[in-house]
């Protein structure tokens, strides 16, 4: 198959294609091995005086760091803070990246190498919309309206296959063919893709000014290496008598730039507008070997063996045969990425492929295509202050992760352990790899708090240094960065009191129990947005523990915590008064009222709560005939406990369907007071004794539930109160059956007696 030419672009001037002018434009697709190979050879041939590369111009004063003996892939990480906005962006480099080859080959031939792109901080700080964090992505090319037309013309599935067909598959592609094809393709995609973004126009104005300045001082050729999307625009700017003005750079509060390790896994994860060349491991093989598909298939076989999957030699031969046939059918000069995937699928996958489920054979293929390479920075690379502080903290507290996993168990009642825990929680908040909390006390659920402890698993990760460098956007020290990240997490939540309580706990675990003005203001805003009674009272319970009972984190009695707790308490009371008849949440409802009562009892004076107003709200709910009996009972119990008037009248709950619910709430909140109120017990006894057998049986399950609030000793005390002489006689004969069976027997007996009464067959007294 002869590849048809890329449609002509009559507006393109022939001078753009020239490779021997004073300024030569070399268009690339980021991370294209074909572009990188041709570019390196071209630089060695023309030996330019300067090589200008699309990349962050604010890294030029540190560009020599790129030539240290790093293990690729690495990336330039640029970050800034402006007010509440924090952003970071990556410029990744693989061995086969054209930008990397331009840098190292340009340096090899003695050229001046410079980055010419508008610094990320200046670009993003001026934009309202969030720009892609991957600065070597294909977004503008992929989104062009022309892509679908070209894919149909060339009989390929997507932009990646289109690029492979035009540039990567043919190992003998000439420089002249590459330049013409790439300039034409990128120009067509740009001019058919709608309006160019303001951010790209600002970048191009900045790059054009850089090129013009360096070209004016150069006595030899200047080579400009940028994404093909920008080449024609830069060419036009240089030939224009009225170039666009250089964009002004807005002020930012803080900015930084540094090298960071990268990985093929991260590069392959990028999707959508941030996507670049897929399957970096494949293109690494394409860079290293002419017969890339054979190398890939051998690696797939090895990966399958490691996964304990059986693939015989015949299977692999079948996959290769199928892939080769597909390559011939598609007109590929050699077996390529899509041929290999389809060949394995057709030859080895016997089952129907289900959406969302990965077949082990295809998983092995994609793992090899992705690659395992992870970068590592060379000694001598300058790092952000955060990384140095992190290393100091880890060494000081003996928390440095090693190649071999180790476990650290901490007793938070000990100051030394508490200090180590705070560092670990700060790392956890910043998502620094290598530190995992695997066990310990549940301070959010507040279960088993006799001993407050934590167990952490420490294991060195190749992502550790990269995570630390990328976290530098949040601050120069570990504590500052963690607190800034926590504030950002609060900002990402909406109307969620439970999330607010969880983040307050995280702050206390990191040693920020005073919260700070900025964090406190955002937490207050988050809590104000939630109107859910159950979420508010759950948050109140967490805050109550930290403010009143904590003896391990150092948060008890904190002024900021008290302020939050008082606000949540007030909002919870207001929400309870408007609750309505919620269903299916009985246990939560009782616990919610219990939490409010406990706050009033334990912290009312310290928080300055208006006890009279609190009791008035409880009384209002207790008297509300539209409220659930359970809630009315709970608020009545709270009033009894607070020795306040206003509880509901028991006679209002004489029906069998409601008395048990009312008493459940009453006993749960007023258990101790009820035991000291014989009048109430007598009233309950009188009410229940008036039930006939059927009514009593209907009320019995809820009544039994209500009395579970009391311990066996307390139940005995209640019985003694009702029947002072009940224990004087001989003990009753123990039941031979369980309580449920006895209740069924009583119900059956009542039915039999009712039938006897109906037909006048029951003689003597009805008490017999």
TrEMBL record:
One Pfam family this sequence matches: DUF5682
Protein name (Swiss-Prot/TrEMBL): 4-aminobutyrate aminotransferase
Origin species: Gloeobacter kilaueensis (strain ATCC BAA-2537 / CCAP 1431/1 / ULC 316 / JS1)
Cited InterPro entries: DUF5682 (IPR043737)
Highest taxon of the lineage: Bacteria
């Amino acid at each position: 198959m002869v590849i048809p030419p890329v449609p002509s672009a009559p507006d393109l001037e022939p001078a753009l294609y020239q490779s021997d002018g004073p300024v030569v434009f070399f268009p690339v697709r980021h991370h294209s091995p074909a572009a990188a190979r041709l570019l390196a050879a071209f630089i060695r041939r023309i030996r330019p005086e300067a090589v200008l590369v699309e990349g962050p111009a604010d890294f030029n004063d540190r560009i020599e760091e790129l030539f240290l003996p790093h293990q690729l892939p690495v990336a330039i990480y640029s970050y800034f803070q402006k007010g509440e906005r924090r952003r970071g962006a990556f410029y990744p480099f693989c061995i086969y990246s054209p930008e990397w080859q331009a840098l190292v080959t340009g340096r090899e031939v003695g050229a001046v190498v410079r980055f010419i792109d508008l610094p990320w901080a200046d670009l993003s700080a001026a934009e309202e919309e969030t720009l892609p964090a991957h600065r070597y992505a294909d977004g503008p090319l992929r989104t062009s309206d022309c892509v679908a037309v070209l894919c149909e013309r060339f009989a390929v599935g997507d932009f990646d296959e289109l690029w492979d067909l035009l540039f990567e598959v043919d190992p003998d592609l000439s420089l002249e063919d590459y330049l013409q094809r790439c300039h034409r393709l990128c120009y067509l995609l740009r001019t058919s893709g709608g309006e160019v973004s303001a951010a790209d126009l600002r970048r191009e104005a900045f790059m054009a000014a850089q090129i013009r300045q360096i070209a004016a001082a150069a006595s030899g050729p200047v080579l400009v290496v940028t994404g093909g999307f920008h080449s024609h625009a830069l060419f036009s700017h240089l030939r224009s008598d009225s170039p666009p003005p250089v964009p002004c750079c807005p002020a930012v509060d803080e900015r930084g730039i540094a090298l960071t390790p990268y990985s093929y896994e991260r590069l392959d994860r990028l999707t959508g507008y941030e996507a670049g060349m897929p399957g970096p491991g494949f293109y690494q093989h394409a860079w290293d070997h002419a017969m890339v598909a054979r190398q890939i298939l051998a690696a797939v076989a090895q990966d399958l063996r490691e996964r304990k999957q059986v693939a015989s030699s015949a299977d692999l031969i079948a996959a290769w045969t199928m892939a080769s046939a597909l390559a011939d059918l598609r007109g590929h000069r050699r077996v390529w990425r899509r041929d290999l995937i389809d060949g394995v699928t057709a030859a080895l996958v016997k089952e129907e492929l289900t959406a969302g489920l990965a077949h082990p054979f295809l998983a092995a293929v994609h793992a090899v295509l992705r690659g395992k390479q992870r970068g590592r920075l060379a000694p001598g690379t300058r790092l952000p202050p955060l990384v140095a502080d992190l290393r100091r903290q880890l060494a000081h507290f003996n928390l440095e992760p090693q190649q071999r996993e180790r476990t650290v168990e901490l007793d938070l009642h000990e100051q030394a352990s508490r200090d180590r825990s705070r560092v670990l929680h700060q790392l956890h908040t910043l998502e620094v790899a290598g530190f995992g909390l695997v066990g310990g006390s549940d301070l959010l659920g507040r279960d088993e708090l006799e001993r407050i402890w934590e167990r952490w698993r420490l294991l060195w990760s190749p992502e550790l240094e990269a995570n630390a460098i990328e976290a530098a956007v949040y601050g120069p020290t570990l504590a500052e960065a963690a607190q800034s990240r926590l504030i950002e997490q609060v900002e990402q939540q909406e109307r969620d009191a439970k999330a607010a309580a969880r983040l307050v706990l995280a702050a206390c675990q990191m040693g920020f129990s005073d919260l700070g003005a900025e964090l406190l203001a955002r937490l207050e805003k988050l809590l104000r947005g939630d109107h859910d009674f159950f979420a508010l009272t759950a948050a109140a319970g967490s805050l109550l523990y930290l403010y009143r009972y904590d003896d391990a984190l150092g948060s008890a009695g904190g002024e900021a915590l008290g302020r939050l707790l008082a606000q949540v308490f007030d909002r919870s009371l207001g929400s309870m008064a408007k609750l309505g008849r919620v269903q299916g949440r009985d246990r939560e409802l009782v616990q919610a009222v219990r939490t409010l009562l406990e706050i009033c009892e334990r912290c009312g004076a310290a928080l300055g709560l208006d006890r009279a107003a609190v009791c008035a709200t409880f009384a209002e709910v207790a008297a509300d005939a539209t409220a659930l009996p359970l809630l009315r009972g709970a608020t009545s119990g709270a009033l009894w406990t607070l020795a306040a008037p206003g509880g509901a009248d028991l006679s209002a709950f004489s029906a069998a369907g409601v008395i048990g619910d009312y008493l459940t709430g009453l006993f749960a909140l007023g258990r101790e007071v009820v035991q000291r109120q014989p009048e109430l017990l007598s009233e309950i006894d009188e009410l229940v004794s008036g039930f006939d057998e059927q009514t009593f049986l209907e009320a019995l399950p809820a009544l039994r539930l209500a009395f579970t609030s009391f311990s066996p000793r307390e139940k005995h005390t209640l019985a003694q109160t009702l029947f002072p002489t009940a224990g004087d006689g001989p003990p009753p004969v123990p039941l031979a059956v369980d309580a449920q069976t006895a209740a069924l027997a009583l119900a059956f007996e009542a039915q039999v007696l009712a039938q006897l009464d109906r037909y006048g067959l029951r003689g003597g007294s009805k008490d017999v």
